[in-house]
From TrEMBL, chain A:
Iron listed as a keyword: yes
Domain FAD-binding FR-type: 237-337
Keywords: 2Fe-2S, FAD, Flavoprotein, Iron, Iron-sulfur, Membrane, Metal-binding, Oxidoreductase, Transmembrane, Transmembrane helix
Superkingdom in the source lineage: Bacteria
Signal peptide: none
Name listed for the protein in its UniProt record: Oxidoreductase
Transmembrane regions listed in the UniProt entry: 30-50, 70-92, 113-131, 151-171, 178-200, 212-231
Organism listed in the record: Galbitalea soli
From TrEMBL, chain B:
Top-level taxon in the UniProt lineage: Bacteria
Gene3D superfamilies on file: 3.90.1010.20
Signal peptide: 1-27
Protein name per UniProt: FMN-binding protein
Biological source species: Galbitalea soli
Transmembrane regions: none
């Protein structure tokens, strides 16, 4: 099997600690700047309103309520646009914080944005009502008759649908695809809400900074979604013309999918990054799969390793030869680029071995730099382990394995047997404090490894995880 | 590192807010002066003189020559003020009509005869937009001025009516 996955020749020198420190410093500076930009955009939306006369509009109760309502709408809209930017998979954001953390921020903003838009609707109905002497119902009817308002109400309804279907509790009840389609409505929500901001909101009065700001933000958000989630994937997919060459069973429910394509090195994927794959057969085209390459690609071939997780991945084991494949990516910071420390510690469980294998293959290492621990709950789940043994030997890395189920009691990420003989993060990785720890496996298990890493005093920037369950 | 992001965000947001608030406070000040002089002509002109805003009162005083000396001297030397009434313009939110006062080939005042008044906020929007439009028309001496944000329909009607009055005046 190893003969089918030729490895790229070793690169000459590993980065020095000071180079890594500099790289980390740059990345953190960029991440901090992005955070600051995000918050400041919220403040700017308020400041621009105040700047163009809003500051004087808090005189009476009705005016104050109205102004607060407008502010809620502005900040809410700003947050939604920031959410779109976070979900657009913009390369600079991915490089700075990683796709998964950008998406965590995206999710965290969802509910506040909805509450602000809710407040916008309620406060304006009440505020206008007070000013006109109408009751809220009469005012709602009056609002409905204003230009572009029926569309805005429609957008509001769509927004509620999007956020509600994304709540964890609700989301579990639906298939991923249903959630995804509903989520696409968020674009419709943003766009239907636009006209009333022009015509009634007056955000876009000619020659104001406010107009410049909002147009720029809309163009940035919708433009980056279009560029990085639609155009770039289509262009890349055509460019590389990837097709399935063979599917090879590795273990029950797990398969290597071998792919061919053109100029695959131009994809510029670092070992450990993932792509979002779509396989164009009648039964599989509507599923997309976030999967990392399980080895460093050559210029014409690549390989992924898939385990049956959902209905969609089950069918991937039977893909016919020649199936057309489209890709989005590469994404993720589970790579050498995130290194900050002199040593490398890797822990992977089950199918989580795939990005780890590519990471190890791609990394520039000095002998003894890396230590690896592989977990499986049974012999059946030792996917790609033979390849890992070879790679570890080649790179002069230590490799430990821990096979067996976790104990039913107690909180450990190791097998019951190893936990009993007091194996721990410290004992397996004596240099853990000087190491970058890369963890890949099921979420609950990952959380336990992270908890132990934090307990031994590992700072967050030395802990790197990749999750697969989204 | 995280602290830096938090502190940076707080600092940047606070400065942006303060700048906006300051700009808004001064804008609100001049807007107040505008509405007090613009909407009800000569009765408020006497109160407006106290506030000391320079340019706006002078344009209104030409229509009420009793208040200041300089305007009355102008009235005796040059041609008299003529009034031209603009067309009635239909908008989605009611009709709009204005008249302009012209003296020596210059528009000296714009008086709104009728503004948008149908539906929820129309009156409020009109009251807000009219003084701004009047000021802009006087400054530009034409109907070619920027729209007032949030008052698209009012603006359209207002400026169309101004244009028709200008046409009648043959300016």
């Amino acid at each position: 099997m190893t003969s089918q996955t030729p490895t790229r020749p070793l690169r000459v020198s590993a980065p020095t600690p000071s180079q890594r420190a500099l790289q980390f410093k740059r990345r953190m500076r960029l991440a901090d700047l992005l955070v600051i930009a995000g918050w400041t955009s919220g403040a700017a939306s308020i400041a621009l309103y105040l700047g163009y006369g809003g500051a004087g509009q808090f005189g009476t109760l009705g005016a104050a309520v109205t102004s607060l309502g407008i502010l809620a709408g502005l900040v809410g809209t700003d947050l939604i646009l920031v959410m779109l930017i976070l979900a657009a998979r913009i390369p600079i954001i991915d490089r700075a914080v990683g796709h998964d953390r950008a998406m965590a921020a995206h999710r965290a903003l969802g509910k506040p944005a909805l509450y602000l838009i809710l407040a916008h609707v309620v406060l304006l109905i009440v505020g206008y009502g007070i000013q006109q002497g109408f009751n809220p119902i009469a005012e709602t009817v009056a609002l409905w008759q204003m230009p572009d308002m029926p569309l805005a109400f429609l957008g509001f309804g769509l927004l509620i649908a999007v956020v509600v279907t994304s709540l964890v509790v609700v989301r579990r009840k639906f298939r991923y695809e249903f959630w995804y389609v509903v989520h696409l409505l968020s674009y419709a929500a943003v766009i239907t809400a636009l006209p009333h901001q022009f015509s009634i909101g007056g955000l876009l009065a000619n020659g104001t900074l406010q107009r410049v700001y909002w147009i720029a933000l809309y163009v940035l958000a919708l433009g980056s979604i279009l560029t990085f989630r639609v155009i770039e994937p289509i262009v890349k997919s055509f460019q590389h013309g990837i097709r399935v060459t063979s599917v090879e069973a590795v273990a029950p429910g797990v398969a290597n999918i071998h792919l061919s394509g053109r100029k695959l090195k131009d994809l510029d994927s670092d070992g450990g990054q993932f792509f979002v794959w779509r396989f164009w057969t009648a039964k599989t085209w509507w599923h997309s799969h976030p999967i990392s390459l399980s080895s460093v690609p050559t210029d014409t071939t690549a390989r992924i390793t898939v385990r049956a997780l959902g209905n969609g991945s089950t069918r991937l084991g039977r893909l016919p030869r020649g199936t057309r494949v489209t890709i989005e990516g590469p994404y993720g910071l589970f790579t050498e680029a995130a290194r900050t420390s002199p040593k490398l510690a890797i822990i992977a469980a089950g199918i989580g071995v795939t990005p780890v294998r590519a990471l190890l293959e791609h990394s520039r290492l000095v002998p003894g730099e890396a230590t690896i621990l592989l977990r499986a709950s049974s012999e059946d789940e030792t996917y790609l382990w033979d390849e890992m043994y070879d790679l570890a030997a080649q790179r002069q890395a230590r490799l430990y394995t821990s096979i067996g189920k976790r104990p039913s009691r107690g909180r450990t990420w190791l097998s019951a047997h190893d936990a009993q003989r007091d194996v721990s993060l410290r004992s397996a990785f004596p240099d853990i404090r000087k190491s970058d720890l890369y963890i890949c496996g099921p979420q609950a298990w990952t959380d336990q490894v992270v908890a132990e890493a934090r307990a031994v005093g590992l700072p967050d920037h030395q802990i790197h995880t990749e999750r697969f369950d989204w | 590192m995280k602290t830096r992001a938090v502190l940076g965000s707080i600092f940047a947001s606070a400065s942006v807010l303060v700048i906006g608030w300051q700009a808004g406070a001064s804008a609100a000040h001049s807007a107040e002066a505008l509405t007090s002089t613009g909407s009800t002509g000569s009765t408020t002109a006497s109160t407006a003189t106290g506030s000391g805003t320079a340019s706006t009162p002078s344009s209104t005083t030409s229509s009420s020559p009793s208040s200041t000396g300089s305007a009355s001297t102008g009235g005796s030397t040059a041609s008299t003020t003529k009034t031209y009434t603009g067309n009635v313009i239909d908008t989605q939110w009611g009709t709009v009509q204005v008249e302009i006062k012209v003296k020596a080939g210059k528009i000296t005042d714009v008086v709104a005869l009728k503004l948008t008044d149908v539906g929820g906020r129309s009156v409020e929007i009109s009251n807000y937009a009219a003084p701004i439009l009047r000021q802009e028309v006087l400054a530009a001496q034409s109907a070619n001025v920027a729209a007032v944000g949030g008052a698209t329909y009012t603006t359209d009607g207002y400026l169309q009516s101004v244009q028709s009055a200008i046409d009648k005046a043959g300016l």
